Amino acid sequence: MKSFRKELWFNVPARRGLVNITRQVQDAVTQSGIKEGLVLVNAMNITASVFINDDESGLHHDFEKWLEHLAPEKPYSQYQHNGFEDNADAHLKRTIMGRECVVAITNGRLDFGTWEQIFYYEFDGRRQKHVLIKIIGE
To answer: Of 18, 49, 50, 123, which is least surrounded by CB within 10 A?
Structure first.
């Protein structure tokens, strides 16, 4: 069994932002030379998420609206965590959207269902953050 590790770096210019990283993950699978196995993709920062869903702008808008309803950014004073940083809502949003995804690799390709794509969702941007890609297989 072989393994391969790669990091993707992001600096989302806004507080929140959604980035489709499917192509970069597939590129890592290709680089790895692994034809059959699994790829783990996870956010390495506590205020960001990696998840799988449809790449549809209406849905992306719905995620933003839904998450802001569940954990509004402001007023900052509503959260016990806020003090040094005003990012308690980002921690809560990450918990809802998840930390990572795992995708099967078949014949050297990401083995997705219909419409599935991998996304990085930043909830406390304007600084450098990263994602880990870890691939294992043959």
So the answer is: 18
